[in-house]
Structures are given as C-alpha cells and as structure tokens.
Design goal:
Length: 390
C-alpha cells in the first residue's frame, strides 16, 4: 500500500545546503561529520524522496575566498547535481554574519566601508541566486545588533538597514530578478541583541520601505520561540498582512539557544496548529526546513532527519484534516460560535447612525458571562486526535 505520508515535490519542501550539510560542529565541539561539497549535499537530498528544492547562502556554494575559476568549477558541479536529482533552487541569501568584517554588523555597521561591502556582497549573492533561478531572497541580520547600545544609535542603525533594503530592491528591479524579499527575525544570537527581534517588528518595518510590496517576512519557529512567543500567532499576523513570503520550519525548546531541531520534534501541538494554519489559509510558498540533525547523527541519520521533517509535516496535515472533520470538534465549534451579521454590521463600518445605535444598546453581561465554552473538552479532543485516539 502507498505510504500516505510520502512527500512529493508538489509539497514544496526545501532544505538549505547548510542544513543537511551541517557538520555537527558547535561552539563546544569539532565536526562529527565530514564536510560535503554543494554537489554532494544535493546528491544527499536526491536520496530523500519528495524534496522540492535547495537553498543557499552565497558562501555555502562559493567560498568567500574562491577564485573565479574555482567558483566556475563549483557552480558547474552544483548545476550537474541539480540536473541529476531534478532539485530546484528555491531561495538564496547572503552570509553577512560569518566573516570577521561583519563582527559589528553588516548594513548596520558603524564602518561605512563594511556597509558598502555588505551591499556589494549581497548584490553579488543576488546575481548568484538568480543564476540558479531562486525566487525568494532572504535577509537574516545575524550580526545586525549590539552587545552594548553605547556602540550606536539604534534608530540610525535601523535606518541603515532600511536604506540597504531599499537600494537592493532597486537592484532586483533593475536587473529584472523578480525577487520577493523575505526578512527573517531573531531576538538574539550571535549578537547579544538583534535589531528587529520578532516577525512583528519586521511587519511594522516593511511599511516604512520604499518598495514595501516586494518585501515580506520569513518567520522561523525557533526564533519566535526564543523570544517566548506563539509562532502560530506570528505567522497569522504575516498571513493577515499578506506578507508570508517564506517560512523556516524547525523546532525549539523555549528558553534555549537556537536549536534548529527537526520539525515537530519538540512542540507537537504548536506544530499541529501551525500546519493547520498554513493549510487552512492555503499557503502556497516554500516550506523550508531551516534545521539540522543532532550532532550524534551520521549520514544515514541525517537522511532520516530530512525524511522526518517532511513526514511529520504531512502527518500533521492529515491530523488537521481529521480534526476539521471530527464530529465532536465541529459540534463544540458550532456551540461556541454565536454569529450575528446584524450586530457585526453595526461596527463593521462606521456611521453616526451605527454609533448612536450601539451607544443606545443595553447588554446582558450576566447572560454573556454564563454561556458555555467547553474548551477543555475541545482541547482534550484535539490532543486525542494528535495521540491517535479515535
Ligand atoms: C538562520 O535561521 C538563518 C540563516 O541560516 C539564513 O540566512 C536564513 C535562511 O533560512 N535562516
Ligand atoms: Mn535558527
Ligand atoms: Mn532561518
């Protein structure tokens, strides 16, 4: 019998080169897995059924100090691997956080030469991404922050970031790249504090941009959890603003460093409501797993990690369908919903008449407070569906 949770490229699951290519190196330990070339990483993903595409930072593909001949060699091997595996390049981004030159920020650096270099490097990385057909361009400001606010005025720092995004939007327009920019928030790490710490900050920031229509957000589960926030609600805000241009799926214990765990491996309930939200609202974008396998994993277990990310998403998608069709769930949702087109229309659009009517109304607070809201039963039923109890 066919596996009902077998992914297909139609599901638009993607992985960054740095995810399944992660060597297991961490701040306290050396690599536990060999470094793979970009082509080898693509071939590894080619062994995982159903992957749609791959993403890269510029220097995941072409090392920062590669000669043009070396770059050409790497790119042609990468292109051959893409053809072999029929994987696409979905998203590209710039590494503006690894090189020591960016130790005090990239676009927000106090050093004008560093700021200019960051814009230069990003344009080159946009060229590289466009060469491989990337449609989304992500900006994660990993060094755009501070340990001490004595170092720079945060208003000036954020304005530098704004001017860089505006310039790079113009570059994409002039080059005809058609990129959709996706801004990715994180509250801290590797800087003590990062500017634009949550998706909400970026949703406000986007409204101040010169080309706000081509800029959206790339929320990441781990990053909103690091800020102690409800990721589902952050994504809902992005959907409401029509700004969910990309999404970084993974998992994360609250109150920990950025763990980038396999999707759904920690907070299954949150993952369920996230998948339900994305599917209910017909999210049509890429589902990028910005995650990596445990440091203990060998190559075979890295492949299991990638399979697990996609499989959990598809299992939860099926659970969401089952939840929406469940009689008990439907009955309780019907019971707690008390719609009234007439009452809603009174404040749906403003008029003096509506205001006067509302002001003249009396409300039975006791009756309102006594209506049944069986959310314990509803949530228990939700948990039972998640736990596989019919
Ligand atoms: C980390 O969560 C960031 C970087 O890996 C990258 O710039 C971005 C794209 O997914 N996520
Ligand atoms: Mn992360
Ligand atoms: Mn990310």
């Amino acid at each position: 019998m066919a596996d009902p949770y077998a992914p297909s490229p139609k599901d638009k699951f993607t992985f960054g080169l740095w995810t399944v290519g992660h060597t297991g190196k961490d701040p306290f330990g050396e690599p536990t897995r060999p470094r793979l070339t970009p082509a080898e990483i693509v071939d590894l993903l080619g062994e995982v059924e159903g992957v749609h595409g791959v993403n890269f930072h510029d220097n995941d593909l072409v090392p920062i100090d590669a000669s043009s001949q070396q770059a050409d060699q790497i790119k042609s091997e990468f292109a051959r691997a893409l053809r072999r595996t029929r994987l696409r390049v979905a998203m590209a981004t710039t590494n503006l956080f690894g090189d020591p030159a960016f130790r005090d920020g990239a676009f927000t650096s106090n050093d004008a030469e560093v700021r200019a270099y960051a814009v230069h490097k990003t344009m080159r990385a946009m060229d590289l991404g466009a060469e491989f057909g990337a449609q989304v361009y992500v900006f994660w400001g990993g060094r755009e922050g501070a340990e001490t606010d004595a170092s720079k005025d945060p208003v000036e720092a954020e304005d530098r970031f704004r001017r860089a995004i505006d310039f790079l939007c113009e570059y994409s327009i002039e080059r005809g790249y058609g990129y959709r920019f996706a801004l990715e928030a994180k509250p801290n790490e590797p800087r003590g504090h990062l500017y634009f710490p949550t998706t909400g900050h970026y949703l406000a920031f986007i409204q101040t941009l010169a080309h706000k229509d081509m800029v959206g957000v790339n929320p990441e589960v781990a990053h909103e959890h690091m800020a102690g926030l409800n990721f589902v609600h952050a994504v809902a805000a992005a959907i409401s603003a029509d700004k969910l241009f990309h999404i970084d799926l993974n998992d994360q214990e609250f109150g920990r460093f950025d763990q980038d765990y396999r999707f759904g491996s920690v907070n299954l309930k949150h993952a369920f409501f996230l998948v339900k939200l994305l599917e209910d609202h017909k999210y049509a974008g890429y589902r990028h797993f910005d995650a990596h396998a445990y440091r203990t994993a060998d190559r075979a277990d890295v492949i299991e990690f990638a399979r697990g990310c996609m499989r959990t998403y598809l299992i939860l998608r099926e659970k969401a369908r089952r939840w929406s069709a469940d009689d008990q769930v439907r009955r309780i949702l019907k019971q707690v919903a008390r719609p009234s087109k007439d009452l809603d229309s009174l404040w749906g659009t403003y008029s003096r008449a509506h205001a006067e009517t509302l002001l003249g109304m009396t409300f039975d607070r006791v009756a309102m407070a006594s209506r049944t809201l069986p959310y314990e039963r509803l949530d228990q039923r939700t948990m039972e569906i998640l736990l596989g109890v019919d």
